[in-house]
Amino acid sequence: MTVRVRFAPSPTGMFHVGGARSALQNWIFAKQQGGVFVLRIEDTDAARNRPEWTEGILSALDWIGIARGSYEGPYFQSSYAGEHRAAAQRLYEGGRAYYCDCTRDDVQARTGPQQRGYDGFCRDRGLEPGEGRALRFRTPDEGETVVVDLVRGEPTFENKLIEDFVIARGDGSPVFLLANVVDDMSMGITHVIRAEEHLPNTPKQQLLWDALGVKPPVWAHVPVVVNEKRQKLSKRRDKVALEAYRDEGYLADAMRNYLMLLGWAPSGDREIVPWPVIEEEFRLDEVNPSPAFFDEKKLRAFNGDYIRALPVADFVEACRPWLIGTGTIAPPPWRPDEFDPAAFAAVAPLAQTRIAVLSEIVPNVDFLFLADPLIDEAAWAKAMKEGAADLLDAAIAAFEALESWDAESLKATLEAVGAERGLKLGKAQAPVRVAVTGRTVGLPLFESLEVLGRDRTLTRLRAARVRLV
Ligand code: GLU
């Protein structure tokens, strides 16, 4: 039997990192089993769906390596409404479901506010279908439902504790629980790998599989992803959108490696491993069922390692979207005609070791492309203390006299200027750096001045000097 898995997101918001993790786990599992990965967009909640979110899911999946065209689908759940209704009808006709006209208030009036769930009032009333009547599944009174779960063993649910749940609303529309099962069935899904939050649905869904006469899939409920306070990652509180990480300049390779470490680790004492190793070593039954901490700091450090490991040419290429501002990435502060690719290539190796996410490239190199540097006033106040004017005068004079405009000569020159004033190089550099780059920290100063060139450097030093008068 061919293994068939599916990833079934609902397009109701930005694409959640937890969703990306489940997608990757499905993807790898399918690959390992020689199986098929199906993408199904669960777009039945018309009020909350938006087409741009579907597009966002497709492009985010593409970004992390689940490329369009290399999987089956996307299918859209809304196209299968007829099948969902037919299944509801079959369950009704087979006596596995019944109509119910109770309102929530009716139920509460009978059971009291404490008791949750439906009390079975309409079970044997034999109501016909009708406007406002919901269809409820008749759960077995006895026995138990054993869910075979690759991550969690065999969670077992007593049937008598499962209420007669609704499968189609009063307007006849089937609910998510049923639509999801019917689609899995008709798409031949053998393994359902999804987030733990769906586990409470699983015994109900398994009962539906049984009632519809099809062998249920094997399940795998992977752990929820939590923040540092052990709260489930939420889009209101936490940065959860995969797109946000992409636009900030996380590398897809770093991101997908990190996502796979949520609840699982490769062999040995390694965390950063080539993707083929993850694809080979990952085992669903090794996934730790407890909540997985999404540690943004660790992800950042990871990303920095991935950036440093890139060949320089790839790094230059990877920075491009931030240097020119494409798609959803904010444009840089310089005009397109101010950007100089050769100057960028010259400083790229220096920047590569200093940034953890690609968007940080912009403040590191803006001094090269802007006509005037963006002066950080706090940095200015800190660097331009007593003696700064004198130091700048001397530096300007010495730099003007330089024969060769290279980093080494610039360094030796400023070192000498500083020494004459009893200043170590670090102290002597500060006013020069702020005058030229606008900041107190950045790329190595002398290499920066070399690339910026004699004229532009001197112009900036003189402008700073004028400001100090
Ligand atoms: N559409 C559901 C969700 O986005 C997924 C259901 C499932 O994987 O079974 O949470």
Summarize the helices and strands and which ones pair or pack.
Elements: E1 4-7, H1 17-32, E2 36-41, H2 51-63, E3 72-76, H3 81-93, E4 97-100, H4 104-111, E5 134-137, E6 144-146, E7 156-158, E8 166-168, H5 176-186, E9 191-195, H6 202-211, E10 218-222, E11 225-226, H7 242-248, H8 252-260, H9 275-281, E12 292-293, H10 296-309, H11 312-324, H12 341-352, H13 361-369, H14 377-383, H15 388-400, H16 407-420, H17 425-437, H18 445-452, H19 454-467
Parallel strand pairs: 1-2, 2-3, 9-10, 11-12
Antiparallel strand pairs: 4-5, 5-8, 6-7
The chain binds glutamic acid (GLU).
Glutamic acid is lined by residues 8-10, 42, 180, 192, 194, 198.
How much beta, percentage-wise? 5-15%
Number of strands: 12
CATH class call of one domain: Mainly Alpha
Helicity level: 40-55%
Ligand species: glutamic acid
Main beta sheet: 3 strands, parallel
- Low-pLDDT regions: none
The Rg value, from CA coordinates, equals 31 Å
Shape: elongated
- CATH topology (level 3) name of one domain: Arc Repressor Mutant, subunit A
Distance between the termini: 83 Å
Q: Number of DSSP helices?
A: 19
CATH architectural group of one domain: Orthogonal Bundle
Oligomer: single chain
Helix vs. strand class: mainly alpha
Largest beta sheet: strand ordering: 1-2-3
Mean pLDDT: 96
